[in-house]
Amino acid sequence: METDILIHIENLQVSVDEKPILKGINLQIRRGEVHAIMGPNGSGKSTLSHVLMGHPKYAVTGGKITYKGQDIAGLAPDERARRGIFLAFQYPMAVPGVPVSKFLRLSLNAVRGKEIPILEFRKTLKTKMEQLGISDNFSGRYINEGFSGGEKKRHEILQMALLEPELAILDETDSGLDIDALKVVSNGIESLRGPEKGILLITHYQRMLNYVTPDFVHVLANGQIIKSGDKNLALELESKGYDWVLEESGLKKKLVLTEE
Amino acid sequence: MAKKPQLAEKKYLYGFHDEVESIFTSGEGLSPRVVEEISAIKSEPDWMRGFRLKSLEIFFKKPMPTWGNTELLNQIHFDKIHYYVRPSEKTEKNWDDVPEKVKQTFQKLGIPEAERKFLAGVTAQYESEVVYHSIRKDLEKLGVVFLSMDDGLKQYPEIVKKYFSTVIPPADNKFAALNSAVWSGGSFIYVPPNTHVEIPLQAYFRINSQNMGQFERTLIITDEGSDVHYIEGCTAPTYSTDSLHAAVVELVALPGSKIRYTTIQNWSDNVFNLVTKRAFAYQDARVEWVDGNIGSKLTMKYPAIYLKGKGAHGEVLSIAYAGRGQHQDAGAKIIHMAPHTTSTILSKSISRDGGRTSYRGLLRVERGATQCKSNVRCDALLLDEDSRSDTYPTMAINEKDVQVGHEATVSKVGEEQMFYLMSRGLKENEAQALIINGFIEPFVKELPMEYAVELNRLIQLEMEGAIG
User: Are residues B297 and B224 in the same domain?
Assistant: First the structure.
């Protein structure tokens, strides 16, 4: 069913400072699906997440991103957010002096397109924080300032839980987390998961996929998706590493001793 | 060539002017005759008339400053300025008695409403004179004196004579000399020993006519163990010609007392704001300048605290915002003159659209001021490539046994910060305003709630129209 398609990425090519990073990505996410993109460092995973959110530094040089049937090439990040796209950052920025609660309220108002009464907001925030096991004092702290790695990731998940996006992209949200934080993050993703939502997990490791089972797994290398499969592909990557996929796709040659 | 996009006009809410017939004006220009006239209209004692005339001589003799933004300073046409404009016959205690047009101005500015809601006393100055003045009865009963400077001189001549111009003598600088010659209006506050004024007193300064010079003079004395919080606000209409505001503010904090002096300066961008502010803090006294500069064409203001007694504490907390065509040259001076004195300077500045901010500061520790501590921090935020920020810190430490810290940062609103906030649905100008609000938060949290809200709103307004 065509209407099920949340996002359709066709032959996407992206350059940063005139250097090609993504070289023709094809990916389609339907409502209700969870996709995982895995790949070695430097494969273009973070570029993909940033370009989907509309970062101005990344120039789309070819291809097309269609979101809910609309080409979103010309849309600024805030317009994408208001249309239901969300990116959980790998390295969220600190904004000194701005309390988390104020930020979250402004975000929620912006995304919902209307002012939410303050009491209702507080109640919603409290519920979400309790669900994610985030302590009360969190909302009074300044955005990501002095946050530990785990706190930053929880904060990202809290934002996701609150904004309830239709398409959530998580950029290495699992990296550097201890097992408790990983569970919080995974629970957050699982509770967002539903028939209307699409989720794109970008990760280096298979670890999180033990908690969130993806419907599809793709391997990104050298700016292209070189292999797709189901969750078993992730397990295979876990046990065998990336080299075999790279070799299979011709990106990496087996070492052959040659005689001079 | 592609046309450069036009910036939307900056919004300045208070740029209106009202048709008010003044009852007396000294006309353009300055002479001993003008000074004599001012003194005569005010029926001043001889010593004050003599003080004014002597100050005028000093003003004429002193050259213009050769530092700071001399290019802008030299645009002041002293012979075009109206040095004294009297809008009404006398200072009223009831808003109903204030001339209708003048009252309307202050209503537009929300002063009577603010007074009802959260102030213990209000002074409203229009051009050269205080047109309205009130203080809560309970404070009056405690012996708290809050008057216009003119009435202070009439009713408390001994106290005024004892302290007036002892903190800032006329020869201090050219603009202090000018103020001393033609001063009019301003506040006189005396708080008796061990008296606590828990609710702020406020003065509001309004310039209405063109080429106006406003020279208010404020003197605040807190007697032993007492405290007071004084707030001043200021606005003016937007004209194509310039006005001059050159105030002198003297604070005397006697042993164990506390003064907090808060300013939200929001002059229109045709006003030269050249103000001398200085405080003496005696033993265990505490003085805090909380200084917000949003408006004006050129501000030069360096609130000073002389820590004269053992254990005295001084704080200068300031923000400056400079947009197109504006230069905020602001800072702080702290002089440690006694042992165990402590001080803090926190300066925050924001430059945008080619605006310019300068931090100019002096920290001096005199010999014998042992075991004193000081911490200076200046943060500058630049919003674009055209804007500018400079720091001119001076430290003169003449004592070994001291702890002094200094830190200065200059940062730009980062693309990544903007992307992060915008990815959460905030528009570009909302994201930028949020970053700025966060940047000035350490300042804003020191303001009473109503002022914090107002300041954030002002910044928000400045940000709108910036991004098309």
Answer: yes
Global pTM reads: 0.81
Going B115 to B120 to B121 to B124, the CA torsion angle's sign is negative
**Domain match, B240 and B389 both:** yes
Residue A131: how many other CB atoms lie within 10 Å = 14
Chain A hits for B442, CB-CB cut-off 8 Å, are: 97
H/E segment holding residue B188: strand B187-191
Domain count, chain B: 2
* Phi/psi at B42 (5° precision): -85, 0
Kindly list the distances between the CA atom of residue B398 and the CA atoms of A213, B286, B315, B335, B343, in Å, as whole numbers in the listed order.
69, 23, 21, 11, 16
Does B439 touch chain A if contact means CB atoms closer than 8 Å?
A: yes
- Confirm whether B6 is domain-assigned: no
Q: Which percentage of chain A shows pLDDT scores above 70?
A: 95
Residues B388 and B264 grouped into a single domain: yes
Q: What ipTM did this prediction achieve?
A: 0.94
Domain enclosing residue B442, as ranges: 426-468
Q: Number of folded domains in chain A?
A: 1
Q: Is the dihedral of CA A171, A172, A176, A177 positive or negative?
A: positive
Contact A93 B425 (CB under 8 A): no
What is residue B1's predicted lDDT score, i.e. its pLDDT? Answer: 37
**Contact status, residue B455 vs residue B444, Cβ threshold 8 Å:** yes
Q: Is there a domain that residue B452 lies in?
A: yes
CATH number of residue A37's parent domain: 3.40.50.300
Residue B16 lies in a domain: no
Is pLDDT above 50 for A228? yes
Mutation for A interface: B418, B424, B426, most A CBs within 10 A: B424
**Residue-number span of the structural domain to which A143 is assigned:** 32-57+74-248
Kindly state whether residues B243 and B299 are assigned to the same domain. yes
> Chain A within 8 Å of B430 (Cβ-Cβ)?
yes
**Residues on A contacting B at a C-beta cutoff of 8 Å:** 50, 53-57, 76-78, 80-82, 86-87, 89, 92-93, 95-98, 102-103, 106-107, 110-111, 142-143, 159, 163
Q: Taking CB atoms and an 8 Å limit, are B417 and A86 in contact across chains?
A: no
The answer on B370 and B468 residing in a single domain is no
Quick check: A56 and B441 CB within 8 A? Answer: no
The answer to whether position A88 is within a domain reads yes
